[in-house]
Design brief:
359 residues, Metallo-beta-lactamase, Chain A, seven-stranded mixed β-sheet, 9 helices, 19 strands
Length: 359
């Protein structure tokens, strides 16, 4: 988590400055660097300030191998986030819970649903493995957080002790961000690490990215409402972590942009004493209280099956959003990544296990 401290004065008030570094390491991806295992799946290791967050766990085998090779100590994991319930993101869950028995787990209630893909008339189970479902069921209720709306994974912490900040919690709740309650300190605020909750499906051209069903006969389509994303505020802008983007990349980024803008606006308002203005602006359902900059987007984009129209419109929207860095992993699709790189240039990078990024 990037921590704010005071540096300089503006009209008698402290100006927040982001200090601590955020790093993200790809543990599992479809591609891998030398000496690392690859598999169809994704796992990211996030170190943000004093917090260690594991985002997905791959299928399991490559995850365990790469954790050892990369020297990652899973016992340090503070928070485990499951982006959704597919096997290639949850297969290493039991191993993580064994190594980090006190970890806080965040996922949507639908994460354990049986899931299937049907191709050429053949159904294949692609849901969370039984071993992972059993392990998740053993997590104590107080450490298993069912995410049904946007929430703060790490609130704004006081540097010298905690005091609840009702003024900030109010406007954040009005745009859908819930507990833990953000906190304020004498020396400044820390912008939060947040979790999207279910992502509204607003675009006409994005879908879940495949023939996904909740039954083996293909009678009930799987909306994948458990699809989640994480974002982190840094001094260079937002760093967004994606699992598979089954909600659609543009749906996801627009949702995050609105919520993150409200977060930034609320924190700025606390610094300036203008809480009432923020409550009025974001509480009315307007757009972001502050514009956001996407410093980096890392993870699966699920453009592997994208139609030409979807890809073209996605590229157009990405040009509008103008991320500094787009690390395309897992289910992004080689052809789609090539098209993204042609449009956005060197800002687009093909992800691989072992890559690490610092912000």
């Amino acid at each position: 988590m990037a921590v704010l401290a005071t540096a300089g004065k503006s009209e008698g008030r402290s100006k927040p400055v982001l200090l601590q570094e955020t790093s993200i390491t790809i543990i599992v991806d479809n591609k891998a660097g030398e000496g690392l295992a690859s598999e169809h799946g994704l796992s990211l290791w996030i170190e943000a300030g004093s917090k260690c967050i594991l985002f997905d766990t791959g299928q399991g085998a490559a995850f365990e191998s790469n954790v050892r090779t990369l020297g990652i100590d899973l016992s340090r994991t503070d928070l485990l986030v499951l982006s959704h319930g597919h096997y290639d993101h949850t297969g290493g869950l039991a191993h993580v819970l064994e190594k980090a028995p006190g970890v806080e787990v965040y996922c949507h209630p639908a994460v354990t649903r049986p899931r299937y893909t049907i191709r050429d008339g053949k159904a294949t189970a692609i849901g969370m493995p039984e071993k992972a479902v059993t392990a998740l069921g053993r997590v104590p209720d107080e450490r298993l957080h069912w995410v049904t709306e946007p929430c703060l994974l790490v609130g704004a912490d006081r540097l010298d002790g905690d005091v609840p900040l009702a003024g900030l919690a109010g406007p954040l709740r009005q745009v859908g961000l819930t507990s833990p309650v953000p906190r304020v300190g004498l020396t400044g605020l820390a912008l939060p690490i947040s979790l999207s909750g279910p992502i509204p499906r607003r675009t006409s051209y994005e879908d879940t990215g495949g023939p996904f069903f909740l039954d083996p006969r293909g009678c009930e389509a799987d909306p994948l409402e458990d699809d989640l994303a994480v974002w982190i505020h840094t001094d260079q802008g937002l760093v967004v972590c994606l699992g598979c983007c089954h909600a659609g990349l543009i749906n996801t980024l627009d949702h995050i942009g609105r919520l993150a803008g409200a977060e930034s606006g609320a924190v700025a308002a606390v610094q300036s004493g203008a809480i009432a203005a923020v409550q009025s602006e974001v509480g009315a359902g307007a757009g972001p209280a502050k514009p956001v900059r996407f410093r980096a987007i890392i993870g699966g984009l699920h453009l592997v099956n994208a139609s030409p129209e979807r890809l073209e419109r996605t590229i157009g929207e990405l040009e509008r959003l103008s991320p500094d860095l787009l690390v395309a992993c897992h289910c992004s699709g080689d052809a789609a990544v090539a098209a993204l790189r042609e449009a956005l240039g060197e800002r687009v990078v093909t992800g691989a296990a072992g890559m690490s990024f610092r912000f």
